[in-house]
Specification:
The protein is α+β, with helices and mostly antiparallel strands. The chain has three helices and five strands, in the order H-H-E-E-E-E-E-H. It has a five-stranded antiparallel beta sheet, covered by helices on one side.
Length: about 160
């Protein structure tokens, strides 16, 4: 119990050597690079999910008897990767912002913490909602995420 509120009973901080500091700095850089790569992979998975979804929708439209020529043309474009939706990220001070670009109309899909790999649902264009949804550095969560991430963001709701 401190006898004064300005004095702490915490043990003094140990001095770290420059070698220790450099090692932890390198580890942090490695983590940030891994988060960057996984964020790009998530963008690719979201785009692929949109393409698969669109192909299914065009096939349903053909089954209903709608304009088959138009829908088959769209399916052919989607099969070779031509798509009006694109997912990419912009890097900010603390987060990577995953952005969905739909024919020039941009919206924020999610945020990824650059240091911890935490994935957050978007609360607005400027910031994430509270509560980490996934961590892309955890292998099991990342594998599930890449398999089940949907372009519309339903996987981000708890």
């Amino acid at each position: 119990m401190p006898y004064n509120k300005h004095i702490s009973n915490q043990p003094p901080m140990t001095a770290t050597t420059f070698a220790d500091y450099s090692a932890t700095q390198e580890a942090r850089k490695d983590i940030e690079l891994a988060v960057l790569g996984h964020t790009q992979s998530l963008c690719d998975a979201l785009r692929q999910n949109f393409i698969e979804y669109s192909i299914r929708q065009h096939r349903r439209a053909v089954e209903k008897g709608e304009d088959a020529k138009y829908h088959f043309t769209c399916i052919e474009k989607l099969m070779v990767g031509i798509c009006d939706y694109n997912f990419y990220f912009e890097t900010g001070r603390k987060y990577h912002k995953i952005i969905m670009n739909a024919n020039g109309s941009r919206s924020c899909h999610a945020f990824v913490d650059k240091k911890t790999g935490g994935l957050y649902k978007s609360a607005s264009w400027r910031g994430p909602a509270k509560g980490e949804r996934f961590n892309i550095l955890v292998i099991k969560e990342r594998e599930w995420l890449f398999e089940n991430a949907t372009w519309c963001g339903g996987y981000l709701y708890k």
